[in-house]
Every structure is written in C-alpha cells, then in structure tokens.
Amino acid sequence: MKLRRVLTVSAILLGICAFIIRANGYELYIVALVGLTTIVGVGLNVLLGMTGQISLGHAAFYAIGAYVVAILTTKLDWTFWAALPLAACSWLSRRYAYAGLISPWSRSRSVSWSSRVRPSGRA
Length: 123
Fold this sequence. Notes:
Elements: H1 2-22, H2 25-50, H3 57-74, H4 80-102
Helix pairs in contact: 3-4
C-alpha cells in the first residue's frame, strides 16, 4: 500500500513537472499563482484555523515577497523562478529582524511572547 502511494505521488509530480516544462508564459503564471496561493492558504489555515490566532502580518509578508518578485522581474529582467528564492529570503530576513527587535523587551516573558496576543490586546 505504501509503495502504491509513493508511485502515485511520483507520477503526479512528474506530470506537473512535464506540464511546467512545456507551458507557455501565461500557463506558468497560472501555475505559480495557484502554488503561491496554496502556500498562503495552508499557512493561514494553520495560523487561524488550528491555533485561532488572527494575524495581518501573514498578508504583509506575502505582499513583501510579491513586491520583491515584481521589482526583480520588471526592473531587473530576472525570470520568475530566479526571483522567487530571493523573495523568500527577503521575507525570512525581515521576519527575523522584526522578531529580533522585539526580543529585548520580552526576556522576562515566555519565548513566544512576541507572536501571542490575547483578545484584550495585552500580551
């Protein structure tokens, strides 16, 4: 049963890769849009659906990555696939830079203080 599942997933991934290789620009755009929206949707499901936390930062980090990709592809003539990893790195660096700015004030509290807000607005 496990081998069958591995073969099925491998065949699906191989089909997707074959489609991406043969796709034109518009089809690549649609595949990338669906993939990125899926990643954001799953992340939002984990954040809001499983933990009950509300975060506008989730959309802000998505927007930062989209902005970086847009600038690199339009102004510097990068391909989308080359700009995507750099956008991910810029997203991570900003996130951890902000967490580093908050951490000196949260030493007396728990480690997750900066990401936890109670409904009353106080941490």
